[in-house]
Amino acid sequence: MITVASVPSAHVYVDHLAPTTTPADQVKRVVRLPDPTPANATMDGQWWPPRLLENDWLLAHINGFDVLHVHFGFDTFAPEDLAAVVRTLNAFDKPLVLTVHDLHNPHFPDNRTHLAQLDVLVPAAHTVITLTRGAADAIAARWGVRAQVIGHPHVVPLTQIGRPRPHSDGYVVGVHAKNLRANLDPLTLMDTLVEAVRAIPDASLRLDIDNDVFDQFSHWYSPTIGAKLCDYATYDEVDIRVHPRFDDAQLWTYMSSIDVSVLPYRYGTHSGWLEACHDLGTAVIAPTCGFYDQQQPCATFDFGSDTFDPSSLIDAVVRTHATSTVPASREQRCADRDAIAAAHAEVYERALGDAR
């Protein structure tokens, strides 16, 4: 059995890297340690900033794991801090596995720090994993490292995948502004989406906004853009809903209540939101700025840091309306997850074997 220190462990992606079942006659191949609690944690379950990337803490706990697997959470660590972590791992023959989820961190418009951090981690990793062939090609082009492509596991609980979708009399195009994090620009899309739904009988546009956007004590306070978005409530075709951030159950209900989700991302690489929509049979229209259509089948429109083609968005909405969305099956998502778990176990076994 291999003990993996995962950064983080308490994340739905990481949680679903375990197989769906372990036969009684087989030893579990991989165990992932729980996240160490940060020294100044202020909430239950907080894992950030990850202590495993604090070099002094890592040195004190170096014998507690076999492999370090980094996913997220290195945003606040300077490249030189990450280089110190790499030196410590090398000194104790502890292999590093890195999954590159983001080539452009969706929380920061300026990507230079993120790339500098990856400049340390990518060459140092025994194995680099990413989710799509396009991302693997981009990694090879910048770092000369061939990443192993392993797909994204399901996001929605397996027990909820494959359920019949609720009946709808109309066609609902959904845009979720969330808390207007850095890469989200729904405002630019709204006029075009209104035009698109007007071209489809019985279609409507639903816009959801987390109420953090209007809370002056919130990190996400952005009342000017929030007000401009809410102004669209004057259109008959537009349904505006401002509410607290959805918990998981509410999010699955929301996704099942819309027919297509438009992702208003100016930049990004991959998307767990897209995977959840796939799990629930909700179509997705994604921007061309990332590799979303390589994750799961979806329509795309021309949208990036400094590009937007409105006609491509209208075309994507009309085409998606005319196309049946094939929902994921529970059986296929179980099979996917077990294959993904086996692929990760093989990565760890190979890394540990080489280290020894």
Brief rundown of the structure:
The protein has twelve helices and twelve strands. The model has no long low-confidence stretch (mean pLDDT 97). The chain folds into two domains: 174 residues, Glycogen Phosphorylase B (Rossmann fold, 3-Layer(aba) Sandwich); 164 residues, 3-Layer(aba) Sandwich (Rossmann fold).
Keywords:
single chain, alpha/beta, Rossmann fold, 12 strands, 36% helix, globular, glycosyltransferase, transferase
Structure explained in plain terms:
- The chain is α/β, with parallel strands linked by helices.
- It is 36% helix and 15% strand.
- The strands form 2 sheets. The chain has a 6-stranded parallel sheet, with helices on both faces. Strands 9-8-7-10-11-12 form a 6-stranded parallel sheet, with helices on both faces.
- Helix 3 (79-91) runs parallel beside helix 4 (112-124) and helix 6 packs across helix 11 (310-321).
- The radius of gyration is 21 Å and the shape is globular.
- InterPro entries: Glyco_trans_4-like_N.
Q: Strand order, main sheet: write it out.
A: 2-1-3-4-5-6
Count the domains: 2
Main sheet summary:
6 strands, parallel
| CATH 2nd-level architecture of the largest domain | 3-Layer(aba) Sandwich
Overall geometry comes to globular
Our Rg estimate from Cα atoms comes to: 21 Å
CATH-wise, what's the superfamily of the largest domain? Answer: Glycogen Phosphorylase B
User: Given the structure, what is the number of helices?
Assistant: 12
User: What share of residues are in beta strands?
Assistant: 15-25%
Helix content: 25-40%
- Please name the CATH topology of the largest domain: Rossmann fold
| Count of distinct strands | 12
Low-confidence stretches: none
The CATH class name of the largest domain reads Alpha Beta
InterPro entries: Glyco_trans_4-like_N
Domain Glycosyltransferase subfamily 4-like N-terminal: 18-148
Keywords: Glycosyltransferase, Transferase
Protein name: Glycosyltransferase subfamily 4-like N-terminal domain-containing protein
